[in-house]
Known about the structure:
- The complex is a heterotrimer.
- Chain A is mostly helical.
- Helices cover 79% and strands 0% of the residues of chain A.
- By secondary structure, chain C is mainly α.
- The longest helix of chain C has 37 residues.
- Chain C starts with 9 loop residues before the first helix and ends with a helix.
- The chains are: A mainly alpha, B alpha/beta, C mainly alpha.
- Chains A and C meet through helix 1, helix 6, helix 7, helix 8 and helix 10 of A and helix 3, helix 4, helix 7, helix 8 and helix 9 of C.
- Chain B: It is a peripheral membrane protein.
- Chain B: It is found in: Cell inner membrane.
Amino acid sequence: MQRMFMRRVGLALLLMLAATALTFWLVTAAPGNVAALIAERAAGAGADGEMIAKIADDLGLNDPLPVRYARWLGDALTGDFGVSLRTGKPMAEEFAERIPMTLALLAGGGVLALVLSLAMGIAGAASNGGIVDRVLHGLALVGASTPNFFFAAMLVIVFSVWLGMVPTFGVAGLTSWLLPWITIALFPASVLARVVRVNMQDTMSRPFATTGFAKGLTRSAVLLREALPNIAIPYMTTFGAQFTLMIIGAIVVERVFGLNGVGAFFIEAIRFRDFIGMQAILTLFVVFFVSINLLVDLLAMLADPRLRRPRKA
Amino acid sequence: MSRHSQNGPIYEVEGLVIDLYTPTVSVRAVDGAGFYVAPGETLAIVGESGSGKTVMTLGPLGLLPEGVAVDLRGTARADGKDILSMSPTDLSRLRGGFFGVIFQDPMSALNPMLKIGPQLAEQARRFAGLSAEEAKKEAVSLLARSGIPDPEDRYDRYPHELSGGMLQRAMIALALAARPRVLIADEPTTALDATVQAQILALIRQIQKEDGIAVILITHDIGAVSVLADRVAVLYAGQVAEEGSAIDVLTAPVHPYTRGLLASVPDFRSNNATGTKEIPGIPPNQAQLEPGCRFADRCELVQPQCRTHRPPLVKVGAGPVPHRVACPVVMAAEGIVTHD
Amino acid sequence: MKNWPWAILAPAVIFVLIGIFSPWIMTHDPAAQDYGALLQGPSGAHWLGTDYLGRDMFSRIIGGARTSLVAMAFVLMAALAIGVVIGSFAGYVGGKTELVLISVIDIALALPSLVIALALMGVFAGENFSWMSDYWKMIVALTLAWWANYARMSRAVVVAELQQPYIEAARVMGASHIWIFTRHILPHVLGLVVVYASADAGALVLAIATLSFLGLGVAPPTPEWGQMLVDGMSYIEENPALVIIPGLALTAVVVSFNLLGEAFALQKVPRAVRGRFLARKKAARAAEEAARKEVEA
């Protein structure tokens, strides 16, 4: 199994390289003339051809693409992601300021999604076709269909505007994290709740569930002790996928609630054509996604007894 | 060969009618059937696939798969107590501690995510009242008793690490861990190789002799019946066609279906040159409710009344073990008299 | 599929119909501003009220349905076409080509679709792409972000089908590659892909709305629900309807598509049967028996 593990890690690294190379190519091929942009920002309309050419030369923008990528990669590996075209600050600094915010959002959202989805899925399975099951199914369906910006807006309307319980913008203290966390967790929790519920249903109809009953276990015991371990792997895989999708939720939430995280920066970078910023953040994203997927793959491999100890005889 | 305890049957079921419903299918799996088994004896319930053997035996215990709605009517008693009116908690305890069940395909009947040994130990703890340590020792000794070599090692294994035969033995051990009084074996050998089949059957017989428990063997394998059974009940399309001692039913069957069934089994020892004979036709569609005898469409002796009047199960012969048959036609034809 | 509640398709069907017939359903020009009637509630003249520029909300919602529908249809068809072609080709040809294509697909799947779309919108912001309108930038970005999943699916189906014995039989009989592919394999591919796409449609509508919400999708005055919502955020205290109405419309349409997808996916999972189901069946059975007894008597 060690070899499978190393192979996955290797593939993941390759993927990161390829993906960042692709984004680099796209981002740098697009803008036409980064040097002109920089010159414009620095000297206003008075930037002339000579100045632009000098900047281009300084930054090595006329070198062939693979060279530029290699240079960028070398810099990136030492933590130098360039300087944002929009804010003028080194990207590393922006990262240091903003990553904690986004991480906090993702962590809180992730925990909330985990807890909610397990609770809803198991409750539905226990009810097994009863009214609790059907109501939860409906909630999960609506939750997976509601746009997160709409949900955030509704939460703001209800809790901030009407009830005045929670501040509308920014975060100050624990309660102000609630709305952003709930918004981010909505979609993953709903999808995962369905995963739990459907997999529990499938597992409960398998022969070993009947054996569980034959052992004298009550239905709750069979649900929790025989069925639940069997949904661990599909749950983990889906959780990993949903966790990476939460970055989109973070982007929206940071915008709606005015939080200065990585997601908000990304959108600003796009709107203001901050290509260096975009490249840096996309790299961050790629590393994040590939790592999470790798982690989930590994955990799934560990969790399956069939993979941990392959058949002997 | 059979021993009737003075206290009477330990698991008995009467007048059972079981309807099964899914969103696409409605079936009357059991249509007024019943059986009983006494301590220390082995009852074989025989029939084709779909005859209702499993539903009839496991249905009263609530051990039918989820996803199917069950409507069950009749009476069922275990150790004299009415199980159909028991609370779910009591019924759970009964299922675990009083009954031990062995299912058909051990590879799918055991949870792939759980180790084997701890499951046995837990049964011993919960139902036999052993401490954690004692339970583990008991589990290991059960595995050994079931013929599993190197039981301490096997204790920590997962199902996929054992072969089919070993797994079935493990399941037998699991069924016995709670020290049950009734062992139900649902087609225990169907999924196994021929040589292993014989070993498993021998194991069951040995356990019965040593522990004096009642055994219900659900099977369509007549060979297994002849090896293990004290009494036999023959089921067709949810109705009991014939029941009695193994000797009576296997050597002197009365019901046309039983006769047909036995005639269709190859017998290597006989010098009979006619070979085997199959029963024409196919089993009836149990989604339709028909009055009368379910075997009517395939029976050589069918009469008009067979299709309108349900043949009653009546006692024939005067032996110590009641021999009952549900076919007035054959009885009339052969001058067999009822001893009711 | 027999016991399907066909009613669940209603919002999706309505969405498509409204989208197609929108010019005839609208009561006003969705872009027409009327400073005399700002932020009004529902009335006889304006069935769903007006927005902050006096535009009729009802017509804007109807118009938004068309915008979303057209955009979604474009993207879906393009992504399907590209994905199925690339994926099927990879699966059928095999060898090094397949390896290369698989790598491309994996890279394209290394990020969630919406993030790719956002990044592409950023790329398209550059001068080299200024010839594209914002709308087409969005369509292309989403298409490029969406095709990879279908490619992966198509390839998987093609690989699985190629292993079937009947393919070998067809080859022996002298069928050409094109024939084998179009006649035998493509139907399987399309079967799976279309099912997935029907549920994916909802995700795509959401993606379009999200892009517009972030200011990177459809631009005003073209009505689009996500964009109407972001505009309405500024007036959330005065008239929350500007936010609520497009939001509800989005939710309803996506719910419907999701139900469609779920109905397909759940065909193999046994349904929970309980209480009322059993009671109904018992009653039916009892009625059957009673009817039979009457006939006999």
